Amino acid sequence: MKIFLEGHWVDKAKKIEVKNPFDDSVIDTVPKADASDVEQALAYAERGAKVMAKLTSYQRWKILRTAADLMAARNEELGQTISKEEGKIIAEGRGEASRAVETMMGSAEEAKRLHGETVPLDADPTGGKKLGFTLRVPCGVVAAIAPFNFPLNLVCHKVGPALAAGNSVIVKPASDTPLSALKLTEILLEAGLPPEGIQCITGSGGEIGDTLVKDRRVRKITFTGSREIGDRICRMAGIKKVTMELGSNSPLIIMPDADLNRVAAAVATTGYGNAGQTCISTQRVLTAKKVYGDFLDALKPKVEALSTGNQLDEKSKVGPMVKESEAVRVEDWIEEAVAAGARLAAGGGRRGAIYMPAVVADVTPDMRISRDELFGPAVAVTPFENIEEAIALANDSIYGLAAGIFTENVEWAMKFAREAEAGNLHVNWGPQWRVDLMPYGGLKDSGFGKEGPRYAVEEMTELKMVVFHLNS
Ligand code: NAP
Questions:
Q1: Phi, psi (5° rounding) for residue 405?
Q2: Distance, CA 414 to ligand 1 centroid (Å)?
């Protein structure tokens, strides 16, 4: 595919190969943009912001609504593209494509809901004869930098609200998975988006990222990706609005009164989806000592039933990781934990880019598999004595994106909701659950700012305060 730059589909001599991680075959190539392309994109986007700001709410709604319909019509093709470039099983690829439609529909609706409010200035002793109201205006140019693991829906979570709010947007998808974002760009243009409204450039983030995020013409950066890159972007960005959706090592607490069959089903679903490459994947399973052995017994057959293979084979339950080097990393971390005293209670082992779903028991909090973001198809199980210790262990992390608890006890559930340090909390399910309309984002080093169209449009706009100084 080509990149969409300055209103045209553009090719370049230097290319990035997009590979299917299952067999390493080349699916397509995309141009490798450089810093001069970014400069061009920035100048065009600045002009684009003026074009976009002139569109009415109705026009923005219509474009996004039409795009959602076009996406729904191309659901199978988009699902296949996602699965091929990212490695997730085809059912998950189709599921992501369907969710992306909802994200775009939600964004379309928000285009009609953006408004300011009157402010009762006369409630202040000095505010008589004043009339005040707010105006919500677009930021201008939005830079949207996306990760590999949800190459369509997470791009929609940025592009949808940015356009709904009347901005122009420069999209920089992950180099491993650029095709879905380029297809989304095609669809938006077909839906009637002025070409000035979007540019989609592919290229190494390490090479072009600084040029994009440092530039003063960018008024808003929306980034989803790793903590390390997020930290770098924050330091480079200077004075501009920034949203950071970063990683996690999400905990799930299993209290002694939990229904263990339900828990095991939830862990098998929320720990291994997309081969564990979900930012809110269940990673640290903190289990009450009283039910520790029974829980492992209930989980083992469920994880062993997760058949691995070609992601496009309808029978596969877990596909390859995004690339073999990632599967090698997961293998290393698990071997390191086992060498330090942990125990492989189920699964494990690697075949190319596929890591076999694993349960690692007797994990201590100092092990890398517990402390850092694993981002692979394995869970780390650690025992605890009581709710206080469970919450302390859950919070013993630099991250705070999502957390879960299984219990029938309302007091424990509420204590968890109040004290667990995470942006999304689940009672009687694992941390990996999301619908696209909800406010979504982390605490601590998992980032700041919220996604979900209703919340993201606020992040993509500025609030102006207008005061009329009247005589009567
Ligand atoms: P990543 O390595 O941080 O890359 C994310 C994006 O940043 C890619 O487009 C990458 O481009 C780009 N990039 C790299 N260096 C850059 C720089 N110096 N300046 C600007 N951009 C740069 O993350 P990933 O491996 O794709 O994704 C996995 C991570 O994302 C995990 O940590 C996961 O938890 C997190 N995540 C968080 C959420 C959330 O909502 N909180 C959702 C999904 C994923 P290249 O691909 O060209 O390097």
A1: -140, 145
A2: 33
pLDDT score, position 176: 98
Considering the domain architecture, whether residues 274 and 380 belong to the same structural domain is answered as yes
Domain total for the chain? 2
DSSP alpha helix (H) spans, 10-152 = 35-54, 57-73, 75-86, 90-113
Q: Is residue 434 part of a domain?
A: no
Give the pair of three-digit tokens for residue 345: 């209670």
Catalytic residue list: 245, 279
Residues with CB under 6 A from ligand 1: 145-149, 154, 172-175, 204-206, 209-210, 213, 224-226, 229, 232-233, 245-248, 279, 373, 375, 401, 442, 447
Host domain of residue 155: 3-247+444-467
**Same-domain check for residues 170 and 71:** yes
pTM for this predicted structure: 0.98
Q: Judge if 36 and 65 occupy the same domain.
A: yes
Task: Give the contacts of 243 (CB within 8 A, at least 6 positions apart).
Answer: 220, 221, 222, 223, 441, 447, 448, 449, 450, 451, 456, 459
Q: Is residue 437 part of a domain?
A: no
Answer yes or no: is 472 within a domain.
no
Predicted pLDDT at 238: 97
Range 421-430 average pLDDT: 98
CA of 224 to the centre of ligand 1 (A): 6
Q: In testing the pocket of ligand 1, which one of 37, 149, 158 has its CB within 8 Å of the most ligand atoms? A: 149
Same domain, 140 and 185: yes
